[in-house]
Amino acid sequence: MDATILIVEDEKNINDVLGFTFAKSGYKTLSAYDGPTGLDMCLNEKPDLVLLDVNLPGMDGMDVCKQIRKTSNVPIIMLTAREDEVDKVLGLELGADDYITKPYSARELTARVKALLRRANADNSNSEPKENTGIITSGDVTINVDRYEVKKNGKTLDITLREFELLKFLAEAPDQIFSREVLLENVWGYEYLGDVRTVDVTIRRLREKIEDDPSMPRYIITKRSIGYYFNKI
Ligand code: CA
């Protein structure tokens, strides 16, 4: 199956170059040049991945991302022009899976797209049952590894794929401390060219969802200057 990538970018030459790059790598591409059209195309055409520029006419990329996340978990990579947008882009409420700062190399972007699609595909194929799958319970949190589902007090949480992968990775080895670098390598799954802030931000998002008090976490614990671990309660 050829994956379809939706490119939402108002600068026509950039959009064209991206389209060309991914078409050459064997992907189908769709292009939108403003926020509302991008959102429409995402909801109607159901692409396998969305490249979403932050600064767009009509509706900015952050709002488009939030709207998409109301109904879809499609992998989203935000294209940001400024380093200082990164925290906002990866912010709690947005739900993007990754970001890349302009100017980026086609090779780097392609690597990230491939990694996200591979992950999404692996998650969608229920072909052979994996080992170590099942249900992990700690306190009032239940992680159903096969169904990609996390519940707190019996209520299903709205969780992105990346948050799930990170939680699962930590929870499968409770009490084991992992450095940010190790988490990046194992959860993000490729030679990550960004920085470890990505891990911190994703941890923060997870805590907002699974902890009673995110400032006093009981499940995902910070080991100062080392990393994080999952606390089995
Ligand atoms: Ca733009």
TrEMBL record:
The record places the DNA-binding region at 133-232
What the entry lists under CDD domains is as follows: trans_reg_C
Swiss-Prot/TrEMBL GO biological process terms: regulation of DNA-templated transcription
Source domain of life: Bacteria
**Which InterPro entries does the UniProt record give?**
CheY-like_superfamily, OmpR/PhoB-type_DNA-bd, Sig_transdc_resp-reg_C-effctor, Sig_transdc_resp-reg_receiver, WalR-like, WH-like_DNA-bd_sf
- Cellular compartments per GO CC: cytosol; protein-DNA complex
Recorded protein name is Stage 0 sporulation protein A homolog
* Record-linked Gene3D superfamilies: 3.40.50.2300, 6.10.250.690, Winged helix-like DNA-binding domain superfamily/Winged helix DNA-binding domain (1.10.10.10)
Recorded GO MF terms: phosphorelay response regulator activity; transcription cis-regulatory region binding
Question: Ranges for the Response regulatory domain?
Answer: 4-117
Known function: May play the central regulatory role in sporulation. It may be an element of the effector pathway responsible for the activation of sporulation genes in response to nutritional stress. Spo0A may act in concert with spo0H (a sigma factor) to control the expression of some genes that are critical to the sporulation process.
Which keywords fit this entry according to its UniProt record? DNA-binding, Phosphoprotein, Transcription, Transcription regulation, Two-component regulatory system
Q: Which residues carry this modification: 4-aspartylphosphate?
A: D53
| Domain spans labelled OmpR/PhoB-type | 133-232
Which Pfam families does UniProt cross-reference here? Response_reg (PF00072), Trans_reg_C (PF00486)
Originating organism = Candidatus Ornithomonoglobus merdipullorum
Give the PROSITE patterns listed for this entry. OMPR_PHOB, RESPONSE_REGULATORY
